[in-house]
Amino acid sequence: MKKSLALIIEQLESRQTMQALSPKRVWDAALDQEIAALPLISAGTPKSAVPALIALKAGLHLLNESLDASHEQSQEIEDDPTGCYWHGIMHRMEGDFSNANYWFSNAGAHPAMESLQTRVADWLQNSVILGDLQEGAIRDALQVIKRQVRWQAPALTSMIALQESGTISEEARGAIEYVQHMELMELFAYTHQAAKRAVAESSI
Q: Distance (Å, rounded) from C-alpha 127 to C-alpha 132?
């Protein structure tokens, strides 16, 4: 029996491990097939709703760490800000950092960035993570993120590129991973709500 969208989301959100900064394989291959088979778009789907639904599938695949499948979806909506944001994260996860920042620029001041900035700043303010980190580039970058007014996706790209060099501590890597997790969750929450608004008459 095919899983419904709700069950797929539940499985992705309840996984015990956060998405890797640089995934080497799909998290759940069977789930990826279920995502691909979701009948989100049909002949009767309003044309205006299609970009939001494609973005939803791009997000689901990326939460499952299926970079190629997510890329295939986001490439279909390169004029859509949400599609551009997912596109950028996909390239960042594959280690193509300059291309990631190109797509983040195309996404512009995405609506999900406001809630994301608030969430990340609150976490940095109220957790002990900054005090636990050794002095250095990652700690300094997180301090900047805590104080900034608007989320800057390239700042996270720079931190991930730095951790790829293998010169940062395990604590710093864990902090970056959690910030990425918050970014993925906030963008997906926005994407899901946007898809539901776009086709309010459907059962998504």
A: 10
- CB distance 90 to 74 below 8 Å: yes
Alpha carbons 79 and 54: distance in angstroms, whole number: 12
Separation CA 55–CA 12 (nearest Å) = 16
What is the domain range of residue 95? 5-198
Letter for the amino acid at 42?
S
163 in a domain, yes or no?
yes
Backbone angles phi, psi at 128, to 5 degrees: -100, 5
Give the three-state DSSP class for 74: helix
> In the chain, how many domains are there?
1
- CB-CB contact of 159 with 195 (8 Å): no
Place of tokens 């295939």: 72
| Reported pTM | 0.93
Taking only the tens place, the pLDDT of each residue in 157-174 is 999 998 877 778 888 999
| Rounded Cα gap, residues 5 and 12, in angstroms | 11
